[in-house]
Amino acid sequence: MSSSQREVLGFTPYQWLVIFAAWLGWGFDVFDALLFNYVARLCVPSLLGVGADQKHLITQWVGILTSVLLIGWALGGILFGKITDRIGRTKTLLLTMMTYALATAACAFAPNIWVLMLFRFIASLGIGGEWAAGAALVAETVPEKKRVAAGALLYTAAPAGLFLATFVTDLFTRQLTFIASDPNLSWRAVFLTGLIPAAVALLIRLKVREPEGWSAAEEKPKIAELFSPAYRRRTIGGLVVALVALITWWSCNAFVPTIASFLAQDQAAGISPEAGRLLQAQYITISTTSFNLGGLIGTLLTIPIAVYCGRRPMFIGYFAASAVSIWLAFQGDFHSETRLYILFFVGLTVFGVFGSFTFYLPELFPMRLRGTGSGFCYNTGRLITAVGPFLVGAVASSASTSEEIMTIVSWVAAVPLAGCLLVMAGLGEETKGQALESQS
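and the corresponding structure tokens:
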């Protein structure tokens, strides 16, 4: 049987294995990264020793801890981006997954907010590093004509990871009553599930080899090379589109569970505290599921849009739609539960655009600089993005109602609108139809 006959949807069995391995790595990466967002309303007051009614203090700390995660995520991405060009894609994938899995599980044993912050920072180093290794591995393994599809399929792991995080959170905070009845125990059980990727990482290392043609560069890749005349325009364009998408996503997603909690409290008047807590868990589940489902569909839509329209038109469309959906979701006149379902459209646009980065950023650089360049663009964006949740959290901490915090978050729509205008003005390299460079 010929190799072409053994192919499924244009990929050989081994190429599917590589895609699946990187898919698991990225999915569990996002799963571990976002567990905190889902249990923040439980773990932050528990570790601070305050009541759940201290909304201002809790919201401020959610913003601080999210920003710390992003700083570590960015630093880890830049560091491991260089490491992946030095020791290889598969070894880096293993190292990063073990790092974030063990550190996330350690969060379950945090005695105070400062230790939680430390463990989250360590986890974020591995979380940030996994992306560049996985994206480079897939881009260099699959056929040229299937690079866009493989990259977008890889990013479907992100909403899948969030679906898993939603399920795990709902399981331990609502469904398993013997655990859910103790809020201090339930959030610790959620963090403990972050250990799952460690076993997966070991299996990946046994089955996946380095891409054909890869070898450790004789000369260490340097970030300064990204700003040489040959790559400066590509680096700046990649950095800016990643920055726009990241600021938008984190400034929205980090506060989706918080907004859902506020909306639940608005509806909880006159019911028992236990019923109010269950309603809060239900609202968080609905909101995050709506957002993630939209993200999954939006991610897959990047395939036909990028292939037929090109990369720059794709970014223009997604950024413009993101601005509209954010403003509609948080400023439209809707019933509380209806608003939770409308977050589907925020996910479709704000989340969906990320399906492009796993194929677009690797397209900008040759193999010798691919991990370094992709990691730098994506994760420097995260470093700058860290300011977003901190500022939104600081401002939102003064909000006393759901309407006030939604008004604050709705102004995030200005970010993708600015990104749309920048790309229309000529920012960003069009890589449609270009072969992936194997040499510098």
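(Above: one complete record from the training split.) Residues 1-5 have pLDDT under 50 and may be disordered.
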